[in-house]
Amino acid sequence: MIKDDIIDAQNLNTQFFGKAIVYKHQTDSTNNLAKQNSDKLHGTVFLADVQTAGRGRSGRTWISDNSDGLWMSILLKPESLPEKLSSLTLVAGLAVVNAMKKFINADIGIKWPNDIVLNKKKICGILSEIFVDENTVKYVICGIGVNLNTEKFPDEISNIACSVKSECGIDIVKNDLLSEILNEFEPLYYEYIQNGLKNIIDDYKKNCITVGKEVLLTGTNYNCNAYALDLTDEGELIVLIDGEKKIISSGEVSVRGLFGYV
Ligand code: BTN
Predict the structure, then answer these.
(1) Does pTM top 0.90 for this prediction?
(2) What pLDDT is attached to residue 258?
(3) How far is the CA of 54 from the centre of ligand 1 (A)?
């Protein structure tokens, strides 16, 4: 029987992130668990071995009914206006990439806005949810799912999903990766809250594999091919559609490669 508990992460160099970690062997979704415990302190992390109803972006399911990955959510309480937080999820993506690069020496990058891609396949997804009351941010939950040991994915996603084990054949200790993500995320988070993306965007762009590619855009207002030209200083995607420049924010579309996932 695995005990649900408050646990400590090793090698944590943070002031707030992960100072409290609520661990459950099983929960429906760590994002839901964080929401149910939103009275907890800023920086509290919710961690589960197994999620019975893991959630992805755009209402999709995130397969995590096994303990083959790192399934975690961070509860954040920024004193910011909601509109100032639209690219926080990009910052989380950069933190995860920086952390993963410490464990694996492989072709890893960010598919805009925040899918982490290893060898052109998705290894990590991020679901950021913002809870607002009368234009005041109550809290933000940043849910991060990293596939670590999955050896076989369902047929529908087997050509677009991967794990550290399937690509690199190595084991990463979950708690080590958790600590490293938090160590990377905390300073970037405070930089972002103070100055926006100004001092982060260049590093993000260096890791972003979307820019310079032909992409397929799908969303309420888009269903077309485009060329990803660049990112704005606010982290929006600048695309060319039939020769016309358009600026797209991260909630608006889903971006795929023309011939595959990236
Ligand atoms: C996506 O790429 O669609 C986002 C996937 C986010 C998955 C993580 S796993 C931990 C947290 N709990 C959830 O239910 N979802 C996020």
Answers:
(1) yes
(2) 81
(3) 6
